[in-house]
Amino acid sequence: MTRFTDNFPTVVASSSANGWPTSMLQLGGILGSLSAGVLGEIFSQTYTMFSACCWVVLGSYLYCGASYHKPGLLYAGRFFTGLGVGTFSGVGWVQFLLLV
What molecular function terms (GO) are annotated for this protein (predicted)? Predict the structure, then answer.
């Protein structure tokens, strides 16, 4: 995507920097899925799903805030989105097991 390449040339130029956005999403997903069961037991699955939604919205706002030549908010947004998606996956898996 030409606009992404223009806004974040340091991320595109380096292969290691190019892998960090994907790695940050995976790291957030791991932490979110590991915490989903505990949070679902303490706060209920409904509130845990709501908090996961809030993490995804926060990550989306951080994506929008990532500015020219400053990919830090891009990485943070990927992490928080991964946290929310991992929490969704963990709570969804628990609900599936309860139905079976």
Answer: carbohydrate:proton symporter activity
Q: What is the pTM of this model?
A: 0.85
Instruction: Assess contact for 92 and 42: CB atoms under 8 A.
Output: no
Contact 45, 99 (CB under 8 A): no
Cβ-Cβ contacts under 8 Å for 48 (sequence gap 6 or more): 36, 39, 40, 87, 91
User: CA angle, 19 as apex, 16 and 21 as ends, to 5°?
Assistant: 130
pLDDT exceeding 90 applies to what percent of the chain? 49
The full set of domain ranges for the chain reads 16-98
Q: Which residue has the tokens 């974040």?
A: 8
CA dist 85 and 53 (Å) reads 8
Please state, in angstroms and rounded to a whole number, the distance separating the CA atoms of residues 48 and 92. Answer: 10
Orientation of helix 45-65 relative to helix 72-99, angle to 10°: 160
